[in-house]
Every structure is written in C-alpha cells, then in structure tokens.
Write a structure and sequence with these properties.
Strand order of the largest sheet: 1-2
Helix content: 40-55%
Distance between the termini: 19 Å
Order of helices and strands: HHEHEHHH
C-alpha cells in the first residue's frame, strides 16, 4: 500500500510540474530482464536482444547504436543507461496525463 501511495504522490508531482516522471522499472527489474537474456552469463546481450527487450518494456524510441553495438555486445550498464535515458514520450501513453491516470484527478 505504501508503494502505491508513493507512486501516486510522484505522479501528482509530475503532473503539477514539481517532479520528474517516476521510473516504471527499477535497476533490479532491468538487471533481471538482462539476466534472462544473457543465459550464458557472458555479461552482454546482442543488439537484437537489446532491441527486443526495450520494445517489450514499452520503449519505442531508443538509441539504435548504443555503446557495444559495433561488436554486437551490449553490457548491463549500457542496457540500463539506455533504458533510463529513453525519452519519456517513448514510454508514456499517448493519452493526456489525466486520461491515462484518472484516479489522480
């Protein structure tokens, strides 16, 4: 219940231009996704896995040439960094904020 209350408070602050959009995924979530893709535990994933994972997470616009792309080896640090730096508009609904979160009105 406390997590939900903190999330609602953060969304209200964002709506009122008093805060940043709260991250939908934590570093732990991102690390878990990366770990599922890096089944051989080599410490990197392929560009195809990188693209697929970001799309699965809802990121529509992302860096098409992240660090390591030239070797087809995307590290965990790069994966998390790129996911966190994705433009908010690429992960947010195209609906107006009030329609996406009517319970905050």
């Amino acid at each position: 219940k406390q997590w939900y209350q903190r999330r609602v408070r953060a969304l209200k602050e964002y709506r009122d231009d008093k805060g940043n959009y709260p991250a939908m995924f934590t570093d732990a979530n991102m690390t878990a996704v990366f770990g599922m893709l890096d089944v051989t535990n080599k410490g990197f994933i392929s560009m195809e896995q990188y693209r697929s994972a970001l799309k699965t997470l809802g990121v529509k616009k992302y860096n098409a040439r992240p660090e390591g792309s030239d070797k087809d080896q995307i590290s965990l640090v790069t994966f998390i960094t790129e996911a966190e730096e994705a433009p908010l508009t690429s992960i947010m609904s195209s609906q107006p904020f009030s329609k996406a979160f009517p319970e905050l009105e």
